[in-house]
Amino acid sequence: MNLLKSPVLVLNQNYEPLNICDVRRAVILLGRGKAEMLHNGRGELHTATLSLPIPSVIRLQYQVRRPFIYRRLSRREIFMRDHHLCCYCGKETRELTLDHVVPRHQGGRHTWDNVVSACIRCNHKKAGLTPHEAGMTLLREPRAPRPSPYALFLHCTPLEDWRPYIPWLS
Ligand SMILES: [Zn+2]
């Protein structure tokens, strides 16, 4: 693994885990005085003229306002939220469709709490009706996914060094 590409945990000024960058970026932030190193779990990086500690945890010297995590309403996101199951019969299928719980022609909106995954059969059966009119029951109330700190580690397993800095892991 290329050391410069190794992951580094970035904490906000108030020590909240903020994101993950690579060593290259972390060294630049440290060099510019924009961050301090909290943990060096990797020894030193040697160049011709100097040696630099290789951080695994850094903390920014300024507070970054957390970006609002906006999750776009898309087929893919809805299917993921619903675990690829039909929200009416519970069947797991690749042939899912989007269903408006309250149909659009009845004023139903295209929003997280009115759109669910439905198998083709259930979608046909429900057609332009509300679940009540169609005699069908939603297995679960649809909701908008909430931004979660766990999303930080969806694509990256936390390193041992990081644990003390991640309250919900320790
Ligand atoms: Zn179904």
In short:
The chain has about 170 residues and is of the alpha+beta class. The protein contains four helices and eight strands; from the N terminus they run ββαββββαββαα. About 15% of the residues lie in helices and about 20% in strands.
Notes on the protein architecture:
The chain is α+β, with helices and mostly antiparallel strands and 170 residues long. It folds into 2 domains: 3-67 and 154-165, no CATH class; 75-134, DNA Binding (I), subunit A. 16% of the residues lie in helices and 21% in strands. It has helices at 23-31, 75-81, 120-126, 131-134, and strands at 7-11, 17-22, 35-39, 44-46, 51-53, 57-60, 96-100, 115-119. The chain is elongated, with a radius of gyration of 23 Å. The two termini are 27 Å apart. The model has no long low-confidence stretch (mean pLDDT 87). The site of zinc ion has 8 residues, from β8 and α3.
Ligands and ions found = zinc ion
**Beta fraction:** 15-25%
Domain module tally? 2
Radius of gyration: 23 Å
* Share in helix: 10-25%
Count the strands?
A: 8
Low-confidence stretches: none
Give the SSE map.
Layout (H helix, E strand, L loop, with lengths): L6 E5 L5 E6 H9 L3 E5 L4 E3 L4 E3 L3 E4 L14 H7 L14 E5 L14 E5 H7 L4 H4 L36
Parallel strand pairs: 1-6
Antiparallel strand pairs: 1-2, 3-6, 4-5, 7-8
This protein binds zinc ion.
Key words describing this protein structure:
single chain, 170 residues, alpha+beta, DNA Binding (I), subunit A, 2 domains, four-stranded mixed sheet, two-stranded antiparallel sheet, 4 helices, 8 strands, 21% strand, elongated, binds zinc ion
